[in-house]
Structures are given as C-alpha cells and as structure tokens.
Amino acid sequence: MFLLVLLWIVFELIRDIYYSFSLSGLVMESHQASTWKLNTLFVSVFLLLVYLLLITSMAKNPAKLSDNNEIITVNKTELVNLTRFDKLMSTVLLMPKSYLYQGEIFITLEEKATEIRVLPFENLLISSFIDIAIPVTALLLMALTSVVVNALYYHKNMIKKITPLCHKVDGIISTYQLDSSVNENSANLHSLTNSLNYLQKISEEYQLKAEEYNFCDKLTKLVDRYHFLDHINKQLIISKKKGIKSALLFIDLDGFKSVNDSYGHSFGDEVLIQVAERLKSIVRRKKLNFKQDDSVLEYNLSRLGGDEFTMFIRELESPEQSIGVAIDVLKELERDFILGTKIIKISASIGIAIYPDSAATPYALIQMADVAMYRAKTDGRGVYRIYSPEMGASMRRYHYLLDEMRAAIDSKNFFLTFQPVIDIDDYGIIYFEALVRWQHPVEGTITPDEFIPIAESSNLILELGDWILDEACRQMSAWYNAGMRNARISVNLSAIQLKHKPLDDWIFESLEKAGLPPRSLMLEITESCFIDASDKLFTMLENLRAKGVLIAIDDFGTGFSSLSILANLPVDVLKIDKIFVSEAMNNSKYNKILHSIVDMAKKLDLNIVAEGIEQVEQLEMLRSLGVQHIQGFLVSRPQRSNYVGKKIFEQGVNHMAHTGTSQWAPQVNDLN
Questions:
Q1: Is residue 472 a contact partner of residue 434, using CB atoms and an 8 Å limit?
Q2: Closest residue by Cα to residue 253 from 319, 328, 310
Q3: Could you tell me if 386 and 410 are in contact, meaning their C-beta atoms sit under 8 angstroms apart?
C-alpha cells in the first residue's frame, strides 16, 4: 500500500509540473490529446522501472537481512493464511509464500517439517525501498529534466508560432476600427486567448448589427416584410402539427398621410418610430415575444411598409385574445405623440385573420387581415374587424372593379351626364353639374357610389378626374359657343385631387385647351375637404376666383366644419345637402336648421343651391325661405349631352342669344 501511495505522489508531482507549464502558455491547446498519450506512456514506463527495481532489491535483501538476525524460526501451527488483499500484494511482489504471524506479514525463506524460517515483510519492503531510493531519485530527476527541457523547447517553438498569430489577430481586430490593447507587446497563449475572446465579442456585435441591417426595416428596426413572412411560415407549420390556432393583426395608421403633408416626412418618420416602440411594449406586456433574449430580433412584429404594421400571435387561446390585443393597440396608438413642441394625434384601423379559419398560408393570412383592415376603415376607422368570408367577397369585387376601371379609362367606357341647376322663379339654367357614369360592357351601368370610392382609394381618381374636367370643359365650350354665355359647367373635385394636383395650373390648362373662359366653370368641393385645408390650397382657390372661376361647398351640413372656417373660406356658392330639404318637411328641428343655414348664407353673401328637390312642396318651401337656385329630380335627372342639347335649344337661338342661357322647367304641370 505504501508503495502505491508513493508512486501516486510521484505521478501527481510530475503531472502538475508538466501542466503548470502548459497553463502558462508553453504548450498549445491543440497538443493536449498527444500530451495525454505521452504522459500515460511516461508514467507506465516509470512505474515499470520502479517495479523492476523493487523486485530485484527484494530478491537480494533476504540474505542481507539474515546477517542482521531479522530472520526468525517459528512453528508452522502458529502461522495464519493471508487475507485476499494481502495475498494479492505478496504475489505481485513475487513473494507468494507469505503468512501472518502475530498480526504481521512474514515471508517464508526456508521450510522444514514442523518449523519455518520467516522474514518480516515490512522490514524487507523498507530495506528494498532504501536500496532503490537512489535509482528512483535519478529516474525522477531525469523525468523532471525531460519535462523542463521539453517545456522549454515547446516554449521556444510556440513563441515562433504564436507571435505571427497574435499579429494576425490584432490585424483582424484593427479592421473593425476598434482600439485593441488586450494583447499589446505579448505573445503567449494567455494573451492570444484574450485577443480571440475580444475578437469573438466584437464579431458577435457586428453580427447583430449585420442581422439588424439585413433583416430589419431601417427606420423602425422592426423585422422587414420578407423575413416576417418567412418566420410566420415556419410558425404556421408548427401550429399545424400541434393543432393550435394563430392570429395575425394588420395595423394601418389613420391620418398618417396628413401628418406627412402638414409637418413633413421627418415628423412622419418620428411618428413611425414611436409607433414601433409602442407596439414593442404591447408585445412584451402581452407576452407575445418570440425572441429568447435582447440580442435577438423580435420576429412576431414587423413593419410591412409605409404606415402598415403587423403583429403575430403564435398560440391563440381564443379569438377573444386577439381582440384584447387589438384593443390594446388601438388605445396605445390613440395616445398623443409628442414631437418637440407639437402634439400629433392619430389612430389605427386593425384587421384580424385567424389561422387556419381565415387562411392557411402566410401570404393569404396577411391578405385576409388586410381585407379586414379595409373593412375597419370603411366602418369608421379607429376600430378592429375580424375577417369573414363576406369581407373576402367584397374585396374580390373591389379588385375586380379596380382592374376593370383601369381598362375602362383606356377604353373610354366612362361618359358624362349633366344635371341642370335652375332659378326658382324663371327656371333659367344657372349651371349644369357634370356627373360621371360608367357603362360596363358586361355589367351595364355601374353607379358612382360604387366606383368613385374605389377610384379615390387607388388614386385612379387623378387620371379619371383629368378626363372628367377636360370632357366637361369641352362640352361646355360647345354650348358656350352656341350662345350659353351666362351658364356654367360644374365639376366635382375630390380630396385626393386637391392634395396631388397643382389646382390653379391644372384648371387653367384644361380651360385653355377647351377654349372656355374661366367664368363658365364652377368647382364643387365637399365640406370635409376644407377641415384640414392648407394655406396653399386657399391661395390656389383665390387665384381661380380672381380669374372668374366660382367655388362651391358641396353637401353642406354633413362635414362638421366649424363656422369660423366657413367665414374665411374662398367660396361663392353653398349647396345645402338634400337631407335637410327632405327632413325639413316633417321635422321641425331640421326645418329650423334649414332656416338658419339660409339666413347665414345670405349674411355671408353666399349664393344658395338646394339639392335633392323631388317634390313640389319642397320647392314651395324653399321659395318661401328665399332660396333662389334648386337642383333635383323634380327639375331633371342627369341627362346625356345630346338630350341636354335638344332641351336648351327648345326656346330657340334668339332666346339663348338674348338671355345667354335657356330654361328648364320642373317636370310638373301645375306650376306657374
């Protein structure tokens, strides 16, 4: 046992010395496997030599010990057999004939009939160790010398290899344009390790930046559309395997374009950044995160482009969960956005699509959520809607008409009708309102109530509006040259045209092209268009009025404009919406409102036109209020140009030359 302990101590000493050099940087990590094999071989040879020396010494020492009277003679009956462990030890040391005597191990030297000469095993072992001490010490010194020499060799050799490697690592670090002082003026494994750790750190940082640059929207730092779609495609595969539902929210900001138009794109960009931060907070608060730590992008939230965002719910417990998230988004985005000294207010419309109920693929899911979002906008904005098949049918109709409308503009399938506005006393024609109609080759006439909103939402109204203005001016020019010098043509303008057209230049160019004087044109603009009208628009309207073009407020009373704005608007005509006329006959409150509108218009020196006149009683009521001009089915439905031409010439050319207009009496027989 003592021998094993001693050998173990020697082995540990050699190993510690050897590895202490390695840890100091004298042996490279790549040599650890071969070093372990060499250590094993070295220890095995060393132990074998010690073992041979010990066996040899123990074979010689009994004779030596006999001279020291350490050999004794004992009776055989007094000897006891060894235990298994002691027997194993004596056999290993080539002393198989060993026994216990008085609690100690003795080795048999000579055996007689009744007596045996024996030698104490411990004395023999100690004597043998003393004999081999010098050879073992010499072996140990040789081993230590070998280790030191080997270590010095490796040190010198590794310095040659590590030095250029350290310079190369420093060169790589310098390419990142960062200050590297981790291994300055040093070339060993420790400094190289520090340099590599530092390089790994900055590489990870640059990798995150590269990921952010390649995968993110540059403005909001949210995942872009492509990688978002790739992500939810993988998540939907998982949802299908698990048999669970997921949801997608399509978020579109309301009123964002007006922010860009009013404050500039820099303000708009800041609003988008703040919107992204608020959506991130909802994702965290609702525990909708996909990322595992702060260094990974949040793939469940994306900016699709413009003012459109989308949020993905991986495991949907119930449809109510998606509704709760949508309500939180609406509340969060309704809070004021503070940009410097300005307070911006916007809202959002949200469409929700459920997987697999609404759609089964990422693209279809986004498309269905987009459809639901448009329904939310149609229903008043600032609300959410969940996709239903009925919405899909509406959207298919929308896209069908949109494609057909593009073709219709090129094929000239649109035409104008003209509805007269007359004087209530002499039925003289004051102006014609030009109204566009669509004659579809398959579906027949498609009403403006259906196609005008599509034209406005797709900006096709710009192209269609150019044709309407040019055609209306061309037709009025023909009537003007025929003698209708005191009548006008009226054209409706949409909010899209007011935002995107240089209004005065556009109008004057069309008038010049048709050869029509400005005083023969009137522009009708709905009341709501004036709510957020810019000073630039007011200036353009004043330029038009200065040349003789009249400006009318259309559908007055339905746009919620303030009276203070009305007092300063550059307008000439106020057209009262038909709801006030129809309701005033039976509702005293509407009747009082109608009286107030007429009185106010007179005091502001505005000409009044009452729309939607369909009954004789309505005409008489308006006459009693002092309204001079009326329009409606009682006078005439919108008519094609050939019908209008025949009608205005009924009184003859002389009448037209004398009055500069014609008459269009209401379609009743009992009127005076």
A1: yes
A2: 310
A3: no
Q: CA 228 to CA 215: how far, in whole Å? A: 9
Q: Could you give the angle at the alpha carbon of 91 between the alpha carbons of 90 and 95, nearest 5°?
A: 60
Give the C-alpha distances (Å, rounded to integers) separating 614 from 611, 637, 665: 9, 10, 13
Mean confidence (pLDDT) of the chain: 82
Q: What is each CA distance from 413 to 416, 437, 451, 477, 654, in whole angstroms?
A: 10, 9, 13, 22, 36
What is the per-residue pLDDT across 518-546, written as a single tens digit (0 to 9) for each?
999 999 998 878 777 778 888 999 999 99
For 179-215, the DSSP string reads ---TTTT--SHHHHHHHHHHHHHHHHHHHHHHHHHHH
- Those residues with Cβ within 8 angstroms of residue 190's Cβ, 6 or more apart along the chain or in another chain: 24, 25
Torsion from C-alpha of 189, 194, 195, 201, nearest 10 degrees? 140
Tell me the two tokens of residue 109: 């030297």
Q: Which pLDDT tens digit goes with each residue over 46-84?
A: 777 777 777 776 666 666 655 555 677 777 666 767 767
Alpha helices in 68-188 (DSSP H): 84-92, 121-175
Could you tell me where the DSSP H helices lie in 22-67? 32-67
H, E, C per residue of 417-456: EEEEEEECCCCEEEEEEEEEEEEECCCEEECHHHHHHHHH
Helix (H, G, I), strand (E, B) or coil at 570: coil
Q: How many CA atoms lie within 13 A of 1 on its CB side?
A: 4
Question: What pLDDT is stored for residue 651 in this prediction?
Answer: 80
- DSSP secondary structure letters along 259-304: HHHHH-HHHHHHHHHHHHHHHHHHHHHTT----SSTTS--TTEEEE
∠ Cα 609 612 618 (to 5°) = 85
- What is the C-alpha separation between 188 and 155, in angstroms, rounded? 9
Question: What contacts 196, CB < 8 A, 6 or more positions away?
Answer: 169
Q: Give the CATH class of 219-399.
A: alpha beta
Tally Cβ neighbours within 10 Å of residue 122: 12
Give the integer Cα–Cα distance in Å for 390 and 290.
32
**Inter-residue contact 490 to 432 (CB < 8 Å):** yes
Separation of alpha carbons 379 and 390, rounded Å: 14
Run of H or E residues at 228: helix 225-242
Residue extents of the structural domains in the chain: 2-164, 219-399
What is the Cα 90 distance to its own chain's centre? 80
Name the pTM for this structure.
0.59
Region of poorest pLDDT, from 137-141, 311-315, 499-503, 666-670: 666-670
